[in-house]
Amino acid sequence: MEGKIAVIACGQEKGKEPVLPSEEMTWYELGKYMRSHRHPPRQRSRWNTRRYVATFEPASTLGKLAAHAVNEMGLQTHPQVVVADGAHWIKKETATHETMVYFCQNRLKAC
Fold first, then answer.
1. Mean pLDDT in each 10-residue stretch from start to end of the chain (111 residues)?
2. 101: helix, coil or strand?
3. Which residues of 80-94 are buried (b: 16+ CB within 10 A; e: fewer)?
4. Residue 14 contacts by C-beta under 8 Å, 6 or more apart in sequence?
5. Taking a C-beta distance cutoff of 8 angstroms, is the pair 105, 37 a contact?
6. d(CA 78, CA 11)
7. Which of 8, 39, 62, 76 is the most exposed place for a label (fewest CB within 10 A)?
8. Exposed, middle or buried, 73 (CB in 10 Å: 0-12/13-18/19+)?
9. pTM over 0.90
10. CA atoms of 63 and 68, how far apart (whole Å)
């Protein structure tokens, strides 16, 4: 038996702008910057309000718990997106609802 977790989030906030190297940086500071910024900088964001639900029960129970959390947060009219790892039970459960699904199976395995 495996545990299942759902996160319901809303209220996206933009983070601060990414720091870019400046002309005033010394060679040491520039080298330090390059070691910690191997990928292009991007603006990050976070969610104000989150609600977590979890269970060891079947997938349908997790769906009911998530629906209850959505109702408590007042998000019934908002579009819903599922980000999942591609497990069979997730594909089966989301096929019964009109929900946009993003599977990030390859990305999770790379971590």
1. 82 76 87 79 77 87 86 82 71 67 54 45
2. strand
3. beeebeeeeebeebb
4. 43, 45
5. no
6. 11
7. 39
8. middle
9. no
10. 9
